[in-house]
Write a structure and sequence with these properties.
3 strands; 54% helix; Arc Repressor Mutant, subunit A; elongated; alpha+beta; 108 residues; three-stranded antiparallel beta sheet
Length: 108
């Protein structure tokens, strides 16, 4: 199952444990080296789709300073999909390196 970049980064952000929305936004920005900046609408739309696909789940809720926080985490299936997609991207990157520098051989 190939993932869109934003979905991949959201799953990767959750790979170390549950986060609330702002935590996901901040972690995705860090993982992407400031290239991907999710707005709240984009984030929650993506989280809803990922939850519908069984890749993430709401694992807690709280109110902090009058604001509602919902915490998300990977499901077992979500971790499997993230692992498979990471392996696919690694193979693709290895192929790209060989094509860009044929002298590299198979040792990368």
């Amino acid at each position: 199952m190939a993932l869109r970049e934003q979905s991949y980064l959201i799953l990767l952000a959750l790979s170390e444990g549950p986060l609330h929305g702002y935590g996901v936004i901040k972690t995705v920005r860090e993982l992407s080296e400031e290239r991907v900046r999710l707005g709240a609408g984009t984030l929650y739309g993506a989280l809803d789709r990922l939850a519908a696909d069984g890749l993430v789940a709401v694992v807690g809720e709280e109110v902090v300073g009058g604001r509602h926080r919902r915490y998300y985490d990977l499901t077992g299936h979500g971790r499997e999909v993230l692992t498979e997609e990471t392996a696919r991207l690694s193979r693709l990157a290895a192929t790209a390196r060989r094509r860009l520098d044929p002298g590299l051989g198979l040792e990368t």
